[in-house]
Amino acid sequence: MTSVTSPLAGDPEVRALLLDELERQRTTLQLIASENFTSLAVMAASASVLTNKYSEGYPSRRYYGGNTVADEVEDLARNRAMTLFGAGHANVQPHAGSPANLAAYLALVEPGDTVLAMRLDQGGHLTHGSPVSITGKLYRFVAYGVTPAKSDGTGERIDLDQVRDLARRERPKLIVAGTTAYSRTIEPGPFREIADEVGAKFMFDMAHPAGLVAAGVHPSPVGTADVVTFTTHKTLRGPRGGAILSGTELARAIDSAVFPGLQGGPLDHVIAAKAVAFAEAARPSFKKYASQVVANASALADALEGEGFRLVAGGTDNHLVLVDLRDFDAGLTGKVAQEALDRAGITCNRNQIPNDPRPPFVASGLRLGTAAETTAGMREAEMSVVAGLLARALKGRDDPAELEAVREDVRALRKTFDPYPEGVGGLL
Ligand SMILES: *Cc1c(COP(=O)(O)O)cnc(C)c1O
């Protein structure tokens, strides 16, 4: 990685920043549940000449010339997505998960319609009707939540009785399943039954578990939900982006909601990278990876309980754990914990827990995920080391020397599990 061969040699300022970020990713622990390390193939495709191309429209129905290659790239990405998930139609143009959700709403409901979705403070996403999101301004969202916590860990599950009661009372046009901070499996079947009973459409937002679904380690909502939205950059390990799956009967409505409904030209370079990621996710090695992600999350959950943390929903079925910090230390907020862990080289995010007494900016929980560190090669044994480092950092949060000592241990652990041992090739 000498500057002589770098395409960024002419802009040392930006190059230095990108090298700093590479260094950060290689020397600190990445436990943010929505992040991953892409392959160099994904990165190379998203850094390609397709960034120069305009291709408003869809393959063979473009508004600009010169789209023979762009058409082939998008067809390849769509076909790979349909094959991977067994869907009748795929739209790979959404720039991210949020525009994918907005496009699905545009296709399925009218402004002012009632939509039932998960409460934001119990695991839902901003695009599920937060008042600060356009989704909450355009539609009338009604929220369901989780059951109360129980000492045996069987509480804090999606409250399907509440979903049914609200659906019967509010008669929503659309029911949304899918979460951003929920550690248990979401079965699509019961949502389908409730939607059918009240004549609602059913959308499943699998932004988080898309990679687990692709690998068959989380039930697939494809075929059960009318529309499935997802991000390509979380457990699926592709480039930053979104996509929408549906049956063929909704293809036109979805496609015109994305373009011209919501976006202009697609990001063809990112679509090429999505194609690469879909092919990677179809490989047997990805199935092994996704199973290990889940096994690692379980191991992390067990080890954290051993360190005295309470886990929301009593543990995990997927790639993430939601830690309730209050049992470990009643005075420790999510905000303070996140900042102390940052100093110790452990990257994660604070998160509200169900019925959190603290506001979102402070919060009483931490959300941790294993998708990225599993890509880096960590297994169950490393998860207990990670839990130990995390507990040490939080206990020593007021002692700069202790935080520095943890940071050194993190750095040493990271040397053995480097996501980019050869750097990032000719890209930097
Ligand atoms: C991450 C996420 C999104 C949005 O994805 P962005 O790419 O950040 O816009 C939507 N829904 C859920 C449930 C998510 O977790």
Fold topology:
Elements: H1 12-27, E1 29-30, H2 40-46, E2 57-58, E3 61-62, H3 68-85, E4 89-91, H4 97-108, E5 114-118, H5 134-138, E6 140-144, H6 160-170, E7 174-177, H7 188-198, E8 201-205, H8 210-214, E9 227-231, E10 242-246, H9 251-258, H10 268-281, H11 284-306, E11 310-311, E12 320-324, H12 334-343, E13 346-347, E14 349-351, E15 365-369, H13 371-375, H14 380-395, H15 400-416
Parallel strand pairs: 1-13, 5-6, 5-7, 7-8, 8-9
Antiparallel strand pairs: 2-3, 4-10, 9-10, 11-12, 12-15, 14-15
Order of helices and strands: HEHEEHEHEHEHEHEHEEHHHEEHEEEHHH
Q: Say what the CATH topology of the largest domain is.
A: Aspartate Aminotransferase, domain 2
Low-confidence stretches: none
Annotation field: number of helices: 15
Distance between the termini: 7 Å
Radius of gyration using CA atoms only: 22 Å
Shape: globular
The level 1 CATH classification of the largest domain is: Alpha Beta
Tally of individual domains: 2
The hetero molecules present are: pyridoxal-5'-phosphate
Q: How much of the sequence is in beta strands?
A: 5-15%
What does this structure look like?
It contains 15 helices and 15 strands. It is α/β, with parallel strands linked by helices. It has two domains: 45-281, Type I PLP-dependent aspartate aminotransferase-like (Major domain) (Aspartate Aminotransferase, domain 2), CATH 3.40.640.10; 284-416, Aspartate Aminotransferase, domain 1, CATH 3.90.1150.10. Helix 2 (40-46) runs antiparallel to helix 10 (268-281) and helix 3 packs parallel to helix 10 (268-281). Strands 4-10-9-8-7-5-6 form a seven-stranded mixed sheet, sandwiched between helices. It has a four-stranded antiparallel sheet with strand order 11-12-15-14. Strands 1-13 form a two-stranded parallel sheet. Bound molecules: pyridoxal-5'-phosphate. Pyridoxal-5'-phosphate binds next to helix 4.
